[in-house]
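Structure (tokenized):
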């Protein structure tokens, strides 16, 4: 089939990618503000609208729903066309999905600082916005699977399997976790209570990470890593094993968040065992992606987009090692509710998801706008080292703070009296919280360099692309 005759729908993809860049910067700037507030509480400024409790869900929602969902929607709609050699199922539907999702993000931006929240982790938005999320998600699913059905090739590329899993699982767990009884226009109460509510919440919370920040990003990378390395996937069979391993075990691991709680011990144990099993498919997939890049070692040595992808894989390995480790009871006893967990989350969020997204931006945006190269190779090099320094400082600072904090909380005298007060534990971790703020600032500074570089790239004179993206 002559694929050059096809006119793929890329305008809506461009809009999704631009929205992803905007939300990546906005969400992470709010994160730096929050890190500053933890070290300088006066920055709350006695305002109910910008205090930590209201900005924190705005930060997580901006990064997860703004940055990640926009980039996954945009890349999935592009990849499903390219790999299926067909155009989108319905062009008008794609624009309904785009604008519907931006309306949701705008409502989040308005409602969360005003204090309208369910107080459920990564599911803070109130019930009218939840209904709109479900509606737009169903339209997105119809668009994606409708395009799959239109494909001109029999084979379904592995990236689309990961996108399909992310769409289906997120729909299922989002709806169940957000079942609620409305009390007013902007207030509702969960239909679950107590331990039952905690189990359902972490079924959602952990799998929002597992399928939005992991499966979806893996699907995106399985397309772009072979493209940027100019080599095929190292092992297509291993990519399929990676898929089924992730889908089969990840959905069971959420209760490792509830160790030492009132949730039944056998339910906790399921989360622990499944977390440990997840090491195998996670590292198998990481090995597959790393070997794909290493097939072109010459290019890897000097191509910073490839190095961003390679760094993302290393942080994926770290996060998927550390997660099961923290699920083991002895480690969880020290780490639970400490800064160590925050360091773990952000080494994955900034190192794995952030660097994957950055690599895709650098590779994809010039090609979407018909440019052959970036405006400045020096700026991407600076960005690479700023990002690395930022993540390393952030993670190491919180590892030290969290481990020390955990030991201080557990330390007892011979008669069972606590050796350290809460204030002493706070004083111990204060300098590490400053280092966290500094590391986050470096990462965000790199994002501003990226935005400037990409803006200048898009403004370059148009050229005729020799190869498709």
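Design, position by position:
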């Amino acid at each position: 089939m002559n694929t050059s005759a096809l006119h793929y729908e890329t305008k809506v993809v461009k809009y999704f990618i631009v929205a992803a860049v905007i939300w990546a910067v906005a969400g992470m700037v709010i994160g730096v503000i929050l890190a500053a507030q933890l070290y300088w509480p006066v920055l709350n400024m006695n305002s109910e609208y910008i205090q930590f409790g209201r900005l924190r869900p705005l930060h997580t929602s901006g990064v997860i729903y703004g940055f990640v969902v926009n980039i996954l929607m945009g890349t999935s709609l592009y990849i499903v066309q390219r790999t299926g050699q067909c155009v989108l199922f319905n062009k008008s539907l794609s624009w309904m999905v785009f604008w519907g999702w931006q309306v949701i993000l705008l409502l989040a931006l308005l409602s969360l600082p005003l204090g309208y929240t369910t107080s459920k982790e990564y599911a803070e938005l109130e019930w009218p916005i939840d209904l709109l999320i479900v509606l737009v998600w169903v339209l997105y699913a119809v668009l994606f699977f409708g395009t799959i059905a239109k494909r001109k090739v029999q084979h379904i590329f592995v990236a689309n399997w990961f996108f399909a899993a992310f769409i289906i699982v997120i729909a299922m767990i989002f709806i169940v976790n957000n079942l609620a009884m409305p009390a007013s226009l902007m207030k509702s109460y969960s239909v679950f209570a107590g331990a039952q509510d905690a189990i359902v919440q972490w079924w959602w919370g952990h799998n929002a990470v597992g399928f939005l920040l992991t499966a979806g990003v893996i699907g995106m990378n399985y397309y772009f890593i072979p493209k940027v390395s100019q080599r095929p996937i190292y092992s297509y069979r291993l990519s399929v094993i990676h898929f089924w391993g992730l889908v089969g075990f990840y959905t069971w691991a959420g209760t490792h968040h509830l160790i030492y709680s009132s949730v039944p011990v056998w339910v906790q144990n399921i989360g622990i065992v499944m977390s440990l099993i997840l090491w195998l498919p996670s590292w198998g997939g990481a090995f597959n992606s790393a070997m794909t890049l290493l097939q072109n070692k010459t290019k890897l040595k000097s191509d910073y987009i490839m190095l961003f992808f390679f760094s993302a894989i290393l942080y994926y390995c770290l996060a998927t090692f550390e997660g099961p480790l923290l699920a083991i009871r002895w480690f969880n006893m020290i780490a639970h509710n400490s800064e160590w967990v925050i360091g773990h989350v952000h080494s994955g969020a900034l190192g794995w998801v952030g660097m994957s997204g950055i690599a895709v931006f650098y590779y994809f945006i010039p090609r979407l706008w018909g440019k052959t190269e970036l405006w400045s190779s020096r700026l991407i090099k600076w960005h690479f080292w700023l990002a690395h320094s930022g993540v390393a400082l952030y993670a190491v600072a919180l590892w030290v703070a969290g481990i020390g904090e955990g030991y201080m909380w557990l330390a007892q005298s011979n008669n069972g009296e606590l050796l350290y007060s809460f204030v002493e534990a706070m004083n111990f971790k204060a300098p590490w919280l400053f280092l966290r703020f500094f590391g986050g600032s470096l990462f965000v500074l790199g994002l501003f360099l990226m935005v400037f570089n990409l803006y200048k790239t898009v403004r370059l004179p148009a050229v005729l692309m020799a190869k498709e993206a």
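Reviewer-requested clarification: DSSP finds 15 helices and two strands in the chain. The mean pLDDT is 94.
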